[in-house]
Design a protein that fits this description.
The protein is α+β, with helices and mostly antiparallel strands. The chain folds into two domains: 39 residues, no CATH class; 46 residues, no CATH class. The strands form two sheets. The protein has a four-stranded antiparallel β-sheet with strand order 2-1-3-4, with no helix packed on it. The protein has a three-stranded antiparallel β-sheet with strand order 5-6-7, covered by helices on one side. 12% of the residues are buried.
C-alpha cells in the first residue's frame, strides 16, 4: 500500500498511517478504529459480509440482517429475496451514514446444527 493512504474512521477523522508505530509497513493505521481506506482524498469501498437469514413463507421469502436492525426485505423467490436484501443493505448503510450513525461491524455467526428428531 502507498504511504499516501489514510484511514477514514467511523468518527470521520483522517489519521495518516503512523510511520513510528509497530504497524509500519503493514498498511494499517496505528488507530484501532475500523474504517475505509482513503487515497488522495477519495474514499475506497470497504467490503463487509453480513449474515442474512432467509425464511420461506406461503407467498415467497423474507430476509433480514441481524446485525442491522430494521434491515429487511422480501422476494417471490429465494434469488429475488437475495438480490433485494443486497440492495436494502447498501441503502440501509447509506442512510445510517447520512444520519451520522456508525455502521455496526458484522458479529452474527451462522451455522447449521444437525439434530435427531425421534419418530
Amino acid at each position: 500500500m502507498s504511504s499516501r493512504l489514510l484511514r477514514w474512521h467511523r468518527h470521520s477523522c483522517l489519521c495518516p498511517i503512523d510511520s513510528n508505530a509497530s504497524t509500519f509497513g503493514t498498511g494499517k493505521s496505528a488507530c484501532a478504529t475500523a474504517g475505509n481506506y482513503v487515497e488522495q482524498g477519495v474514499k475506497m469501498k470497504e467490503a463487509r459480509k453480513y449474515a442474512v437469514v432467509f425464511e420461506k413463507s406461503p407467498t415467497g421469502y423474507g430476509a433480514y440482517v441481524p446485525d442491522l436492525p430494521g434491515c429487511v426485505s422480501v422476494g417471490d423467490t429465494l434469488e429475488e429475496a437475495e438480490r433485494n436484501i443486497r440492495e436494502v443493505i447498501e441503502g440501509h448503510i447509506a442512510v445510517m451514514r447520512e444520519h451520522g450513525e456508525s455502521v455496526p461491524v458484522p458479529t452474527t455467526a451462522v451455522q447449521e446444527v444437525a439434530v435427531e428428531i425421534p419418530a
